[in-house]
Amino acid sequence: MATALVAGSARGLSSAEHALRRVFLAQVEAIPGGRRISRCLQCGTCTGSCPVSYAMDITPREVIARFRAGDIHSILRSRTIWLCASCYACTTRCPVGIKITDIVYALKRLALARGIRPARYPVFALAESFVAVVRHYGRSSEPRLMALYYLHAGIGGAVRHAGMALRLMRKGRLPLRAKRIRGLQDLRRILERAEAIELAVHHELAGATAEVGYGVVGGVPPRAVAVAAARTAT
Asked: How far apart are CA 233 and CA 5, in angstroms?
């Protein structure tokens, strides 16, 4: 059984693939119960439970299968990690308790950090624009969010949706004025703290194993996980 779970080998893989795998596995280790990824049965319950799997180019079940095969780069280039609705249906119904939604978030963070994006699918720009607006105001502001998004994705979308925006504005559902929240500096410190924890994990991976697939789960240096846990607790 253990042999079946260890799929692929480090032979023939680029250093970029090794680096992606090391960082991803460190994030998986930081998820409570993250090691359960090695118990995947490939039953497809996650895909059957997902309300948006019909729109994905890689199903949730296939995400785990591709990780098993050592093909993490194709996962990061897929639309799947950006389509996740965060409903946790897959996590709730997984028969072995794999936290699939949290794993998808780890993949999304890795894709953002490495600038790996799906072709002709600018949803990543929405995520980046949302973070920028929240960092500035402490809350979402739809007009500013859409303005930043269309600057990245192309002005054509803004022209197509201009009529809807005007109707929303007339009904008072799209306020142009945005107010900053109280305690904005505290929120910014929280965000900076979270980013520092993530960077700490990245830096601790210099000597991590370059194995592939499930065989590497549990092979991330304990100190990398300990540093992340210690910084989260303080």
From this structure: 33
Sign of CA dihedral 215, 218, 224, 225: positive
| Residue pair 80/58 in contact by the 8 Å Cβ criterion | yes
Output the domain CATH number for residue 94.
1.10.1060
Place of tokens 């600057």: 151
Q: Which domain holds residue 100?
A: 2-120+185-227
Number of domains forming the structure of the chain: 2
CA–CA distance, 26 with 219 (Å, rounded to integer): 9
Q: Are 29 and 219 in contact (CB under 8 A)?
A: no
Q: Three-state secondary structure along 30-99?
A: HCCCHHHHHHCCCCCHHHHHCCCHHHCCCCHHHHHHHHHCCCHHHHHCCCHHHHCCCCCHHHHHCCCCCC
pTM of the predicted protein model: 0.60
Two tokens at 98?
A: 């794999």
**pLDDT of the chain, 234 residues: tens digit per residue:** 333 333 333 445 567 666 666 766 666 666 666 678 878 899 999 999 999 999 999 999 998 888 777 788 888 888 899 999 999 999 999 999 988 998 888 888 888 777 888 877 777 788 788 888 999 999 988 889 888 888 877 788 888 888 888 898 888 888 888 889 999 999 999 988 877 776 555 554 444 434 444 444 444 444 443 444 444 444
